[in-house]
Specification:
The protein is α/β, with parallel strands linked by helices and 360 residues long. It has two domains: 208 residues, TIM Barrel (Alpha-Beta Barrel); 123 residues, Lyase, Ornithine Decarboxylase, Chain A, domain 1 (Beta Barrel), CATH 2.40.37. The chain is 26% helix and 24% strand. The chain is built from eleven helices and 18 strands. The strands form three sheets. Strands 1, 10, 13, 14, 15, 16, 17 and 18 form an eight-stranded mixed β-sheet that branches. Helix 1 crosses helix 3 and helix 7 runs parallel beside helix 8. The chain starts with 5 loop residues before the first strand and ends with a strand. The model has no long low-confidence stretch (mean pLDDT 97). Bound molecules: pyridoxal-5'-phosphate. The site of pyridoxal-5'-phosphate (PLP) has 12 residues, from strand 9.
Length: 360
């Protein structure tokens, strides 16, 4: 028998969440963001779940090619553009759209002799986040330089917001990034692409022509409310089973480092799921889990292949009891917050050794 851990992906939830993204920005086209193997859900499932999207956007050039091999014929966008000159012929062959965020990329495009290429370029502005992109005062020059390249047939103006889930953030209010973007792009011809999930859900007025929806499509929140508040459905469920039980008394410790010490008699369940499956090792005592439909919590440190849970108040539970680490009955966000991270990280960290099935 295989180890009793399995992730279940719900294709219907992917479809539903895409429709939620569209509802919030009814006049915009939607890129479904599928980087990091569709946030851990698998590219092939994403192609089916997001068949209704206007395009798929990701980071990895090899996975963009894979999307074409899987039969995706609509647009594909590389959100960080290409990484080196050897990527450029791949862009042509597979008709990949791409971001341009620095002069080194423009220089590579200028140097590539590509008489037949028709590139749709997304020119990235650093409007305050200080990761990728041209600053507002460099932006027009970069735009003109791209326009002078014959192979460039359109330029979409793109930026990314640091605080769309917290618009009043005092260090960089959303409105300030919007102001810089609007000012620096005024009068330039082309479409606009600024909205991530948080922008789509909470600032639909900023959708422009294109939204770039990521985490919301997988049924987790980008912040600013719970996924449920936004009507999103979890697309990933992680289940395992209890494979061992220990009965301990006050003073007994559990797991590495003896981080948990019982103050009363307890029943401890050992679950076949550890950090090598993608469960966060830094989850503290008290991180929620569901056993046989009953909510309980972790006790002791998460180890590589196992974690330990409190079964004291679930008398019927024992070896073979079903354990849900996250999914429909327990949101991935809640587990993530308990562990000091975000749902994004847990989804992306689902380990290759975990078998994946599709929800029937
Ligand atoms: C990942 C990414 C997104 C999607 O962000 P979410 O918060 O997951 O919606 C949008 N735009 C860019 C440039 C990205 O890299």
């Amino acid at each position: 028998m295989p180890r009793p851990i399995v992730a279940t992906i719900d294709i219907f939830a992917l479809q539903h969440n895409l429709s939620v993204a569209r509802k919030h920005a009814p006049h915009a086209k939607t890129w479904a963001v599928v980087k990091a193997h569709a946030y851990g859900h698998g590219l092939e499932r994403a192609v089916r779940g997001f068949a209704a999207a206007d395009g798929l956007a990701l980071i990895e050039v090899d996975n963009a090619v894979r999307l074409r091999e899987l039969g995706w014929t609509k647009p594909i966008l590389l959100l960080e553009g290409f990484f080196d000159a050897s990527d450029i012929p791949v862009l042509v062959t597979h008709q990949l759209q791409f971001a341009i965020h620095c002069n080194a990329q423009i220089a590579l495009l200028e140097a590539a002799a590509l008489p037949d290429a028709r590139f749709h370029v997304h020119l990235k502005m650093n409007s305050g986040m200080n990761r990728l992109g041209f600053t507002p005062d460099q932006y027009r020059a970069a735009y003109e330089r791209l326009r002078a390249i014959p192979a460039v047939s359109s330029i979409t103006m793109m930026t990314h917001f640091a605080n769309a889930d917290d618009a009043a953030n005092p260090d960089l209010p959303l409105a300030e990034q919007v102001r810089r973007f609007r000012q620096a792009t005024a009068g330039l011809e082309g479409e606009h692409s600024v909205a991530n999930s948080a922008t789509d859900l909470m600032h639909g007025d900023l959708a422009y022509e294109w939204v770039r929806a990521g985490v919301m499509l997988y049924g987790a929140t980008p912040g600013g409310g719970t996924a449920q508040d936004f009507g999103l459905q979890p697309a990933m469920q992680l289940d395992s089973e209890v494979i061992g039980v220990q009965h301990i008394v006050a003073g007994d410790a559990v797991g590495y480092g003896s981080r948990f010490v019982a103050d009363k008699p307890m029943t401890i369940g050992v679950v076949a799921c550890g950090y090598a499956d993608g469960y966060p090792r830094h989850a503290p005592n008290g991180t929620p889990v569901i056993v046989d439909g009953v909510r309980t919590c972790t006790v002791g440190r998460v180890s590589m292949d196992m974690l330990t849970v409190d079964l004291t108040a679930i008398p019927g539970a024992g070896v073979g009891s079903r354990v849900t680490l996250w999914g429909k009955e327990l949101s991935i966000d809640e587990v993530a917050f308990a562990a000091g991270t975000i749902g994004y990280e847990l989804m992306c960290a689902l380990a290759p050794r975990v078998p994946v099935q599709e929800k029937k």
